[in-house]
Predict the structure.
Amino acid sequence: KALLCGHLLSLFAFAHFRWCREDGGVFSVVKKWCVTSVLQVLSLLGVTIDLGKSKMLDHTRTLAPDYVADVLFGCNFVGIVFARSL
């Protein structure tokens, strides 16, 4: 159980301090995702609310290939470090 907790904490630390740093951290990204999802559901129901772009996810932003490679290699590294059952 300690190995699983260490694995999850390491992934969270990578996500918070490295991958989501420009967006304000993991909690900020999750909050923006929730707000964007609720606004999309409300727009399907015909309700429109304008909160501004800073509180919503930016779906038009393209991801740089270096960023994608960094996330993939970081996840792979954490997985290899905590793969004690192999």
Q: What stands out?
A: The chain has three helices and no strands. Helices lie at 2-19, 26-44, 65-81. The longest helix spans residues 26-44.
